[in-house]
Design brief:
The protein is of the alpha/beta class. The protein folds into two domains: 4-220, DHBP synthase, CATH 3.90.870.10; 244-350, Rossmann fold (3-Layer(aba) Sandwich). The protein is built from twelve helices and 16 strands. The longest helix is centred in the last third of the chain and has 17 residues, at 252-268. The structure holds adenosine monophosphate and magnesium ion (MG). The site of adenosine monophosphate (AMP) has 20 residues, from β6 and β10. Adenosine monophosphate is lined by residues 64-65, 67, 102, 114, 117, 119-121, 144-145, 182, 185, 196-197, 230-234.
């Protein structure tokens, strides 16, 4: 299959390209498109056969359900059986935007979207290109991240091209994704609203709107792999570049000294070694590649660069990446959640 690659300016959307892409979706094909979180791999969310193609292109396990994206809020009524009060408050505060809500589903939603669940995950993105495409298609669009399953999510169209060239019908390039981390997922179908995946809409922000919010125990702790996550996708190894990622935790001086020692050791053993750090510490390291995620206190910048930098280590042919750990409060919860998964939930502590 030849994958068409089209560029759209989000401030001046070319409706001819949108129509062409929407046509592909209506006919059961796959189109990757930008959202404010990461690039999505879209299919008609009411067409079970089209959704199965998403699993095939990504190599995604079939028990990992998809998020349906809507172009207008009213579209929610087609797919959600009931809208609890807490969901209403969350939608009023954060939609359109980077948060996915789990609802009881209507029977129109195919099993290939939701797996064995009687619930459906729904997001109303703010990205103008995404919404214009969904509205032109006239159906909710199923769209997981447009990467090969297990790899870092794409935050640029070039990342999508690298993973999906020849496997999907079209890629729409709409520039860099704003947040660079996948949406927060919140389950409101059982008592206290529960975060199933942390994202740019933080626990603190949600608590201001709906009061007490829980975090699924399977995602809250380092190395806590016993609890089965309610978002099935969270049980899989994720966000991993080809390089092995190793987190190093401890006081600043110890981390820098230890990482430099580890780098030396591994280089002597013949490996190409990288270091992932922040602007403040980058100058203290010597390695085959020292890449900064941004300023330590700028979580938005760190979040938006994380997947791009993980992919860059692969591009540079790095075998092992030593990474510092970052702040865990606020958006840091999402950053560290992705980083821990990239590192297989293990770390080295240097006291
Ligand atoms: P992504 O691959 O980034 O689109 O992520 C989709 C995430 O949403 C996965 O972790 C899924 O497990 C989760 N998800 C989708 N539908 C549901 C659902 N009905 N209940 C719980 N989690 C869901
Ligand atoms: Mg994904």
């Amino acid at each position: 299959m030849i994958t068409k690659f089209k560029t759209i300016d989000s401030e001046n959307i070319d409706l001819k390209i949108i129509e062409e892409a929407a046509d592909i979706l209506k006919k059961g094909g796959l189109v990757a498109f930008p959202t404010e979180t990461v690039y999505g791999l879209g299919a008609n969310g009411l067409d079970g056969e089209a959704c199965r193609k998403i699993y095939e292109a990504k190599g995604r396990p079939s028990d990992n359900p998809l998020i349906l994206h809507i172009g207008e809020r009213e579209q929610l009524n087609i797919i959600a059986e009931e809208i609890p009060e807490s969901a209403q408050k969350i939608m009023d505060a954060f939609w359109p935007g980077p948060i996915t809500i789990i609802f009881k589903k209507k029977s129109i939603v195919p099993d290939s979207v939701t797996g064995k669940f009687n619930t459906v995950a729904v997001r109303f993105p703010s990205n103008k290109i995404a919404r214009s495409l969904i509205n032109a298609a006239g159906v909710p669009v199923a769209a997981p991240s447009a990467n090969i399953s297990g790899k870092p999510s794409p935050t640029r169209a070039s990342h999508v091209l690298f993973d999906m060239d020849g496997k999907i019908d079209m890629i729409i390039d709409g520039g860099a994704a704003h947040f660079g981390l996948e949406s927060t997922i919140i389950d409101v179908s059982t008592g206290v609203p529960t975060i199933l995946r942390p994202g740019a809409i933080t626990k603190e922000m949600l608590e201001e709107v709906v009061g007490n919010v829980d975090v699924d125990p399977a995602i809250s702790g380092m190395g806590n792999t016993d609890a089965a996550p309610k978002a099935p996708g969270m049980k899989y190894t994720h966000y991993s570049p080809n390089a092995k990622v190793i987190l190093v935790k401890g006081s600043k001086d110890n981390v820098i000294e230890s990482i430099n020692n580890f780098v030396c050791e591994k280089q002597k053993a013949g490996f190409k070694v990288g270091v992932m750090t922040t602007d403040e510490n980058a100058m203290f390291y010597t390695a085959d590649a020292v890449l900064s995620l941004g300023k330590y206190d700028d979580q938005e910048e760190i979040g938006s660069n994380l997947f791009k930098i993980l992919r860059k280590f692969d591009f540079l042919g790095i075998d092992i990446v030593y990474s510092e750990v970052f702040q865990e409060q606020g958006e840091g919860a999402a950053i560290m959640n992705r980083l821990k998964k990239a590192a297989g939930n293990t770390f080295i502590e240097v006291i």
